[in-house]
Write a structure and sequence with these properties.
heterodimer; A: mainly beta; five-stranded antiparallel beta sheet; 11 strands; B: mainly beta; seven-stranded mixed beta sheet; four-stranded antiparallel beta sheet
Chain lengths: 113, 112
C-alpha cells in the first residue's frame, strides 16, 4: 500500500522557468509534509516543509502548496536553475509520531540551461 | 565536519555472509534511523532509535539487527545476506520530535 505517490518519475524544465513537482497521499492522518532533494551519490537533504494547518509555505525560490481536501501537495521552484537538477522526494508524517516519515519514490528534475 | 557519516560507502559481498554498516552523527540528535532504498527508488524506513532505545521496527527480516552503543551511533548488522538485500542503505538522524531528518551519504550494498 503506497501511501505517498509521486506520479511523475521525471520532469524536464528550461532554466528560468517554473518547475512544479507533485505528490499525492492517501492517509488522512498525515499532518506534516516535507520535500527532500537528492543529488547522485549523496543522501537526501531537507528542502522545505508544511504543516497541515497551512496551505502554503515559501522559502526563497521554493514554495510548497498543500490541498488537504485533494490530499495533494506540490513544490514550485521559481526560477529554476541548473543546480536544481536532482531527485526530489515528497514525505509525509504524523506530528505525534515524529520521525516516521513515509516517502514517495521521487521525481527526477532536469533543468536545462 | 560531516554531520551524518556512514561506512563503508560501498560494500560488495557474497550471499550468506554477515556484514555491518556503521553510522555516526555529530549533530547531538536524539533519534537515528535506517532506511533502505531499493531498485524502485523507494525510501523505506527500517528502524528508528531514540536515545539508544528502539522505537520503530518496520517489517524487516530478523537477519537485520540494529545496534546503538550510544545516541551518536546506530550500526546495522546483517546476517546471512541474500540477493534481495542489495540496495542503498541510508542512515539519518533528527532532533527529538522534529520531523526533518538529516541523511548520511548512503552505503551501496551489492550481494553476489
Amino acid at each position: 500500500d503506497q501511501q505517498v505517490k509521486q506520479n511523475s518519475p521525471s520532469l524536464s524544465v528550461q532554466e528560468g522557468r517554473i518547475s512544479i513537482l507533485n505528490c499525492d497521499y492517501t492517509n488522512s492522518m498525515f499532518d506534516y509534509f516535507l520535500w527532500y532533494k537528492k543529488y547522485p551519490a549523496e543522501g537526501p537533504t531537507f528542502l522545505i516543509s508544511i504543516s497541515s494547518i497551512k496551505d502554503k509555505n515559501e522559502d526563497g525560490r521554493f514554495t510548497v502548496f498543500l490541498n488537504k481536501s485533494a490530499k495533494h501537495l506540490s513544490l514550485h521552484i521559481v526560477p529554476s536553475q541548473p543546480g536544481d537538477s536532482a531527485v526530489y522526494f515528497c514525505a509525509a508524517s504524523v506530528v505525534t509520531n515524529a520521525g516516521k516519515s513515509t516517502f514517495g519514490d521521487g521525481t527526477t528534475l532536469t533543468v536545462k540551461p | 565536519d560531516t554531520a551524518v557519516s556512514q561506512t563503508p560507502k560501498y560494500l560488495v559481498t557474497q550471499m550468506g555472509n554477515d556484514k555491518s554498516i556503521k553510522c555516526e552523527q555529530n549533530l547531538g540528535h536524539d533519534t537515528m534511523y535506517w532506511y533502505k532504498q531499493d531498485s524502485k527508488k523507494f525510501l523505506k524506513i527500517m528502524f528508528s532509535y531514540n536515545n539508544k532505545e528502539l522505537i520503530i521496527n518496520e517489517t524487516v527480516p530478523n537477519r537485520f539487527s540494529p545496534k546503538s552503543p550510544d545516541k551518536a551511533h546506530l550500526n546495522l548488522h546483517i546476517n546471512s545476506l541474500e540477493l534481495g538485500d542489495s540496495a542503498v542503505y541510508f542512515c539519518a538522524s533528527s532532533p527529538l520530535s522534529i520531523n526533518e531528518q538529516f541523511f548520511g551519504p548512503g552505503t551501496r550494498l551489492t550481494v553476489l
